[in-house]
Amino acid sequence: MTLQAPQARTGDHWLAVRPRLVLASAFMLFLELALIRWTGSNIVHLSYFTNFVLLGSFLGIGLGFLRVGRAKGQPYYSPVVLFGLVVLVVMFPVTVDRDTEGVLYWTSLATKGPPAWLILPVIFCAAALVLMGPAELVGRCFPELPRLEAYRYDLIGSLTGIAAFTALSFLSAPPVFWGAIAALAYGVLLTPRPLVSYLGLVTVPSLAVVALLLAETLTAGALWSPYYKVTFRQFDQLGVPVTDISVNGIPHQQAVPAAARLQWERQYGLPYERAATPPRDVLIVGAGSGTDVAIALSKGVSRVDAVEIDPKLRELGGSKHPDHPYDDPRVTTHVTDGRAFLERTSGKYDLILFALPDSLTLVSGASSLRLESYLFTEEAMRAARDHLKPGGAFSMYNYYRESWLVDRLASTVKAAFGHDPCVDVVSTAGQQAVITAGLTPAAQRCAAPWAGPTAGTPPPAGDDRPFLYLKDRTIPPIYLITLGLILAVSLIAVRAVAGPYRRMRPYADLFLLGVAFLLLETKSVTGFALLFGTTWVVNAVVFAGVLVAVLAAVEVTRRFRTPPLPVMYGVLLAGLLLAWLVPNAWLLSLPLPLRAVAAVTVAFLPIFAANVVFAKRFSDAADATTSFGANLLGAMVGGCLEYLALVIGYKGLIIVAAVLYLGAFALLPRRGAVSA
């Protein structure tokens, strides 16, 4: 029998409980997404550890629920801490640091700003404290409604928060709009009693945050794409006009006339020299600000398909590039993910060029997946090979920094094309290299045979473990240390805020459900990124789809008589088995509409079953806020376990999730204990 909560009480707040719950939930998710985007744009470490703020947010949300019933006053601390966080980031930004071996990013540039060991713990703790406030406001609504009805409105609010942030991303709205929404939400949700505390701890900090973000918007002159904070400056270099483009404070691209670029750096012209036949139809992945397109046009090609994932970089190329390559009628632009374009297009090309398609950020919600990760797998190289005309060639160039990385990519190309590629190391400083392979050996003209990979070169990356920059099949020490510190801080924080751990002991199964569900969500995000692209639109749709599946599970549980928990656990494990058995290669081979139907079925069947299990268990929990808080803390631990994918691959996360669900089933309280 489902336990029913007392009817809504509205005397403590001027807003009725249901709209208040929707607003608080929407604000909670909106604030989480805004913090991830804004801190990552100013603290470069977070561009490569995007789930660091996510983990802090999960901790704060879990703590907020656990505070319900223990804290009497309003969570006025949240806007104050948010103000302190914004001041800290504005005053001490970190512009560049990618010079550490063993992690998933590279550069030779130096750091400006506080070191990672100092700034990252502060950001993590601040994110937890900021999100704890809205979560406490959400948690206070739960006891006023029946369990599943409260969860239902929480999900509706979360979907609203995603929709609002997605709309602002589509409009390229700067963070001052995010701050204004946060200030308005704080003003509505926090009651103005006593008035002095409300003005000093809510109104003043909130307006100060808006003012700081407005000043940043006006002074930085930044363009806000869905991925980056983009800034640029224009100058003359040896009489040549140059537009230097930085993203998230890191030098990223230069818009330079084709003639000057070819004169300054050999690598840009080598793909055309190594192709045995002068190319006419060219595909450029990573077209960016247009220099590679301008070079292709200068070589006399008749058609260029230019693929660029970031709309603002493409926009800058159209307006700032001295050669105006995007105005040429021979050029067709595609703002999408490069791997997704290869999987969808039916076009054939004389030359396919991967032109420095390295991103400076990770896919949101996936701890180790970069925007370009699926471009450098053996399967991606095969997809490029399949789109070459007879006599065509594939080429890629970049500053690879490590010689083993050049060898790994050359080995990947060899595995895909079946013969040795041309490998030109143009400069050993930064390992500036060009790798070219013809469809057949006769379609390429190498200056010298490739010597082959050196001993210790890792095998090609694959779609299941698309971690090009990870040399060894292990979790780098920096991640292990960071995650260990996160868990230690979380244990201390939970004990300080929620009291003895025995309070959550009856909900150990709900904790494991949270751990496993986060792994399922990660597998869904990465799977859809492979099947449909790593674009922000796909990412937003997947997160919304997960919440819709959860909401559907709640509605089914509320309105219909669902099978007993043991049966639903069986359905869940069957869904996980299906997800394990269906290969990505088969899904990629399907036409796009069928691929979408099959992918949704495979991904969302276990998610739906898992949330029917959660809804049934949650409806019988004796303490709604404590049980929900335990589940959210489990999600935080699941975020740490995501890094297992570095060792076992994303498919292996399904096995880990299955083991965790079996553990949750084993810890399921007996019916008598639940009734008590």
Automatic annotation (TrEMBL):
The UniProt entry, under InterPro entries, shows:
SAM-dependent_MTases_sf
Q: Which UniProt keywords apply?
A: Membrane, Polyamine biosynthesis, Transmembrane, Transmembrane helix
Entry annotated with the keyword DNA repair: no
Which positions, given as ranges, span the membrane?
21-40, 46-69, 76-96, 116-138, 150-170, 176-192, 199-224, 478-498, 510-530, 536-554, 566-586, 592-614, 626-646, 652-668
Q: Which Gene3D superfamilies match?
A: Vaccinia Virus protein VP39
Which domain of life, per UniProt? Bacteria
Q: Could you identify this protein by its name?
A: Spermidine synthase
